[in-house]
Amino acid sequence: MPTENFIYRLPATQIVPFWEAIKFACVQADEVKMEDRADYFNELLQSLLSDKAQVFVVLDSKRILHTIAVTRIAFNKVNLKKELLIQCLYSMTMIDNDAAIKYFSFAAEFAKKEGCVRIVYNSRNPRIWELAMLNGCQEQYRSFALDLGGN
Q1: Residue 49 and residue 143: Cα distance in Å, rounded?
Q2: Max Cα–Cα distance, the chain, nearest Å
Q3: Domains present along the chain, CATH in parentheses
Q4: Which of 60, 67, 93, 148 has the fewest CB atoms within 10 Å, i.e. is most exposed?
């Protein structure tokens, strides 16, 4: 019989005990290059400790970590309305569709409570795309980049 999972928002005082797991999740989900990691993690840690970014974790009844999500509340530059940006979403275990719906509903409730009108996130992971569609998300755009080298 599977154990039940619980979603928690980490307060600033709990960021440090989870810091290595947060860094691992962000490197995996955001594909942070080695040369960018120091700046990336300095900014992220400052944002988490000052509550400009949030961390949510999924733990089972044995307190085993399954999923990490890093979010930020941002203003859309076009309509000036609040949006919940899911910056990082990483699962150490496979998420089934029912769990994905439960977790997304939790994120939607948090976003509504914070006055957000939309949830947005970017991913190169096809499974994340599938989960997005399952939860009623619509693709907004595709992003392309050309690396010109140098600094």
Answers
A1: 30
A2: 53
A3: 5-134 (3.40.630.30)
A4: 148
